[in-house]
Structures are given as structure tokens and as C-alpha cells.
Amino acid sequence: MSGEITNYVFEAMPHFEGYVYPNEATPQPLWSILIVLYPYITGLVAGAFIMASLVRVFNVRALEPVYRLSMLTAFAFLLCAPLPLLFHLGHPERCLEVMMTPHLTSPMAIFGFVYAWYLMAVLLLELWFDYRRDFVEWSNRTSGLKTVLYRLFTVGVTDVSEPSVKLDHKLGHILSIVGIPSAFLLHGYVGFIFGSVKANPWWGNVLMPIIFIMSAMVSGIALCVFNYMVLNWVRRKTIDMKCLDVMCMFLFYALVMDAAIEGLDWIHRVYSAEEGFQVMQYMAREKLFYTLNVGQATLGTVVPLLLLGLLQLLRKRVPELARRRMYFSSAVLVICGVLAMRWNVVIGGQLFSKSLRGVMSYKMEFAGLEGWFMGAVLLALPFILLIVMIKLFLSEQLPTSASLEARDVAAK
Amino acid sequence: MSRNVSRRNLLAKIGAALAGVLVAPVARTAKAAVQKVFVSTGAAKGYDPTKHRWVMAIDANRCIGCGLCAEACKKENHVPEGPYFRTWVERYIITKPAPGSGAARGETLVDCPSGGMHGYPEPAVPKEEIQHSFFVPKLCNLCEHSPCVQVCPVGATFDAPDGAVLIDPKYCIGCGFCIQACPYGCRFLSPITKTAEKCTLCYHRITRGLKPACVEVCPTQARVFGDLKNPAPEDPIRQFYENNKVQALKPHLGTEPRVFYAGIDKEVR
Amino acid sequence: MRPKFKIPPQVLRILLLAIGIVTSYSIARYFLTPTTFRQYGWYRGEALSELQAREPMFAGKKACEECHSDEMAKLLKHEHKSLSCEGCHGPGQAHSDNPDVKIDQLNYGPCVRCHEANPSRPKWLKQIVIKNHYTGSKCTECHVPHAPTEVP
């Protein structure tokens, strides 16, 4: 260990340096890949929802083509969000206790309620109001199992008269407005779970919920860009460049804010250099070098910032194909960068002893509940769900901003 | 018309009362049946937790690093093999500063092989280079404002009325949040029960009038244990408070530990 | 007559669903909250008695004295009076319940565990460097553990 940390290697234990409390000397950190995925997936939900709200609440018409895709993305990921949390529990069969006797001083206790609220009161309802007319229509048009399915989704309400649909739209709008604070709550509280741990200087930080919300927005928008481009590629449709430009503009500004807040966090840490700073510095330099400096900061933030920033300035002059490629690579980099950020927070916070005198190492296994394979499965699951949903609920021809403008003009 | 309404009201009221009378006992029996399946019922009575206030104190000046306490704790509480400890003993070695460095002290070296439960071998640092060296027994700090209790999402860990901080092994969901929240590293997730575990002050012993196992076997009375609500004559814990200037671990976190330490150094955390 | 206000069907359906969900939650909560929850606080009061129920392994010095009062009297006269029997002899509840269950025989382990020289031990403790002190096999050849100041 570096000389600055006044410590010494006593025992020939390969994966510890310095002194760690005896209970911390476990081969794996207590919270591993599953808890990395949990805030990552919830973040994607919150971000994708914010993306959809840009259309509904802020009336960004150019983004209308991706409204339904973003909502379905949010929905598919939300359905998978509690799985990693559930699997990591020592006693998953007791999980309902968190709903039955929620201990209200614990940030984790509100998970059940926030989740239920967000799933049922916000996402499901907004989707339902948006889709109700289509469900009725589709249930009449299709046959067989699909009819039964669509009819089930109407929940027996078949009124699709003009005023009724108008009401749907209005209610959807209200829900969307309610949804934004809910999305912030959903993800802010995840940040608070870490930010409230005063025992851990890596986590215990007032900025943590804000950092989580900002990075959630960034990752969610990037995911929508990714999904939109991949979907159009799979369907061999042309991409609506106007929509893509606007999406990536929002991605850029969200990324600017995210980078600013995270930068502020680090400046504050370095400047105040409180107890435990030395061990954190060592972690950033050694243990987390690749995921923090390379993955999160450089590839996940600086490179996409440069790429997207460049395109904000030179949008007109860059040919479409190059622009699409730059957008796509930025989106992928951001998605991976935020995953690295979650890793750095969750795993990083457990790689040093709370005695602040030593560090642990962590090598992820391939098999097992906390291994690579399980992580990949859990990360693939929402995409599989999304594919099913797209098959069921997303029309073959997404509306384009040109067609929407034409409709607006006609309406006037 | 109005008579009609009032009659209907009356009927509704009677109906509701009847329903209440009929439903309540049914619900109660049903609940009892459900509870029987989910939670088995209790054990010995006769101990009133509101009439005691247990506390431990550590006199580090008296600790000789034999590690009997850590060993006894493992045996008494069937603590799993491996890096799982409800109590342990740390060794601190502060070396002399390098000549001419102008420093007051050298490095602080800490170790704790197997939680100290097999005693301590001679340190790797030669005796002449040691400025200062001592042992520090560690256990649950019995915080007044326990962060572990604060973060438990289901109410499975709690401050018992008698001062012990306990875990309900039948209710813990094993989320590990309390382990993350404890600043002193006193909790672990048992690989056997898959629930969090920690020092209970040997709850099954103290409620029978015995001392905690670590206190029982300590040859030098470095661990002092007592009941603040029922002080014995010449109570060791009273004497400890009267004879020592004490300090607590990590006081800046505001957890207000009730376990006081005498004779420790600023490097202890 | 004013036109009668009718709740729109989709709103009605949702209200009914919401009521259904809240009701089933309340019922579930009624049945699944343990009876002794909140007896003392936000936890199962019963947990206290359950935690008390476990059997101890270490019987305590008093239990030893019941049969071995002679040894205890000897011990109390000397430096080792503060030692617990079970510190050296190991957990004794099983032996205390049934004297036929033997307690482990001791070797010199317990002596050096405390008395081997170690710069971290406090100065008031008597310490020896074993290789300079004695090369035989047993401490008890010269010392009586229950009366350490006596020489046999």
C-alpha cells in the first residue's frame, strides 16, 4: 500500500492490503453485481420515462416518434428492476415483510411503495390511457389469442368516443406530470440508500441522490437513442433524423449537467479531504482505475461529451451517416459509462475497510448467483421483455415528425 | 319519505354491527391460524426487559491479547467458521519515527489474525522499533442512535428495552443494509442462516443471570459488564466509570456508543 | 332537471381497481403482521424471548464452585483469583449438567497464551520468553496453575 496511508501488510492474505475488520475479510463484497444492476436498471427506467415526458409534458413534438418506445422501455425495465434486489436477499421468501411492516426510518423500506406506485399509478396507467383506444381497435381487428389479450387489456372499457379519448389524453397528461417527481423519487431514493450510509465515506454524501438522478436521465435517454436506432435498423426503416437530433441534444445537455455535478462531487472530496480521503484516493488510483478513470470518466463522459458537443455545433455540416454513427457510439458509450459508474459506487464503496486502513480486491466469478452469467441474464431480461412488447404494442410504422407536422397543420 | 330513509339507515347500521360482530372473531381466529404457520410462539417468560439496562465497557489497559473472549464467543454463539466475528481483539503497533524525520510517531500498524481468537504471536516488527503497542477488544458498540437499526427496512433489528441491540433471526430478510450501515464492522451475514448476525451481549446468558461469555472468560477483567438499572454493591461498571476517563469509537459519526473505552489511542477506530 | 353527472367508465374502472388493491393490501397486512409486533417497538416482541431461549455453553464460575469448592478456595488465595475456570478448561455447561461428560484435559497451551512475552502486552503482566525459560514439556512440572505463587 502507498506510504501515505500509515499501514502495513501483516498477514499473507492475497486479497487484502493493510488492515480490514475481521468481518470485512469475506472473499466477496456483501453487495455485488446484483446490487450494481439494481440502481442501473431503475435508473434506465427513470431516464426513459423522463424522455417520454419531454413529449407529454414539455410538448417536444419532434420526439413524438419515440414516445411509445420510451414508455415501453421504461415499463419493460421497471418490471425487471426488483429482480436483482430480490435475488440478493438472504431470505427472498420474506420479502413481503417490507410491505407489511415497513420500518419508516429506513430508505429501503419505501421501496415496495415507491415501486408499486410507480408501476401501477404512473407507468401502467399512463400506458393504458395512451393505448386504450388502440386496444379496443386491435381487439376487433385481430383474431385468436391476440384478441383475448387485447380485450383483457381494455379491462372491459370499450368506450372510444371522441370525448372519452380526449379524457384519456388529459388524464395521461396529468399522470405524466405526476410521473416526473415520481421518477425522481424512484431513483433519488436509490441514491439515498447509498448517500445515507454515514459509515462509508465513499457513499455518505448529500450529492448522491442528485448524482443518481442525473446519471439516470443520461442513461435512460441514451438507452432510448440506442433502442430507437436498433429498432429502425432491425425493421429496415429510415431513421427520422430530426427526432434523433433532438434526442441527442437532450442527451448532450443531460450529460453536461451530470458531468458538472459529478465533477463538483469530486472537487469537493479532494478539496475537503476528510477522514478516509487517502484510502479513497488510493482506490481511484489503483483498484478502480479502469472502471472509474477509463470507463466512467473518459469513455463514459468525456468522449461522448466531445462527440455530442461537436455535433451540436456542426450538425448541418456533418453528413447523416457519420452523424448517426457518432450518435450511436455516444449512446453506447454513455450506457456503458453509467454501468461503470454504478459499479464504482456499489463495489467501490465496499473495496475499502471501514477502519480506513486497508483495501480488499474483488474478482467476479462467472457462475453463481453473483457471477457474470447471472448479471448478463438479468441485463438481457428487460430487452427480451421489450422485444415482446414491441411485437405486441408498437406499430410497424412509427410516426415521423414530418407526418406529425402535417397532421398538426391539417388540424389547424 | 324521510321515515323511509331513516329506516334504511337504521337497517344499515344494524347490518354493519351484525357483520362486525360476526366477522371480528372469525378474522381473529383466522389471523391466529395464519400466525401459527408463519411464526411459532415464544419461549420462557419471567424476564422483564424494561427493568434492566445492560452495558459493557472496555479497559484496554488490562487487555493482554489472549483472545479467550473471541474464542469463547465463537463457541458460545455457534458463530460460523471463517471471517465471522461477534467480538474480536485488535493489536495496534505504533512504531518509533525514523531518526531525523522530525515526526512524533512512526506508522500505525494494525492486525487481527483470525479475530485474535488463537492469541497473538510476536509481532513482525522488532521490539526496539515499537514506540507503543496495545490490544483493543471490539464488539457491538451499543449505539444510542444505532445506524443499523435506523436502516433495517422491516424492523428485524432493534434496540431492545434493556439496552441490547438485537436481530430477530426469524424476521431478517438478509438484505445486508445494516451491515453496510454499521461503522464498526460489527455485523456479518451468516453463511449458514443467511441473516445478519452480531453481538447480542449473550442475550440468552444475561437474561439468566450469567455474564456474557467473553466477560466470563476474560482473565484480567478488561471487559466490564453490568446492569445500570440494578447496580450491585461495588459494581465493577460503576467503578469503571468513576476511575477512568473514557472515550468512544468514531464519535464524529454521532452514533453515541454506550460501550466506553479506557486507555486507547487516537489511532483506534 | 340537470343532466346527471356520470363518472367516465375508465375512471370508474380505475377507482374500483385502486380500492381493490388497497383493500387487499389492508387485509394482507392484518393477517401477516406478527401479533407481538410493536409490543415494545417496531419489531416482534416475541423475538426477545426466542433469543433468550438458547442454551448456554459456558456454565459460569458459580456453577463450577458448586462441586469444586476446594479448588475454588485454593484459586481465590492466589494471583489467578480473577481467572474464570472455563477460560482455561473450556466450556463446561455440558459437564455441569452431567458430571459424566468429561472436560478436555489441559496441556501447556493456556499458560503461554497469556504469559509468552509479547511487546504488545501490558508491562504489569508476568511474561516469559519460552526458549530462555524452560525447555521441558509441561509448565506444571514447576508451577501449580491454581496457585501460581506456590512451587510444588
Structural class of chain B: alpha+beta
Supply the CATH class of the domain at 49-81 and 199-262 in chain B: Alpha Beta
Q: What structural class do helix, strand and pairing data of chain A support?
A: mainly alpha
* Rounded mean pLDDT score of chain A: 90
Distinct helical segment count of chain B: 7
Could you state the order of secondary-structure elements of chain B as H and E? HEHEEEHEEHEEHHEHE
Mean pLDDT of chain B: 89
Q: Can you identify the CATH class of chain A?
A: Mainly Alpha
Characterise the protein shown here.
The complex is a heterotrimer of chains A (412), B (269) and C (152). Chain A has 14 helices and two strands. Chain A has 412 residues and is an all-alpha fold. In chain B, the strands form four sheets. In chain B, strands 9-1-10 form a three-stranded mixed sheet, with helices on one face. Helix content of chain B is 27%, strand content 17%. Chain B is built from seven helices and ten strands. Chain B is of the alpha+beta class and 269 residues long. Residues 39-44 of chain B have low confidence and may be disordered. The N and C termini of chain C lie far apart (116 Å). Chain C has two domains: 9-52, no CATH class; 61-141, no CATH class. The radius of gyration of chain C is 33 Å and the shape is elongated. Chain C contains eight helices and no strands. The longest helix of chain C has 24 residues, at 9-32. Chain C is mainly alpha-helical and 152 residues long. Classes of the chains: A mainly alpha (412), B alpha+beta (269), C mainly alpha (152). Chains in contact: A-B, A-C, B-C. The interface between B and C is large, with 68 and 43 residues.
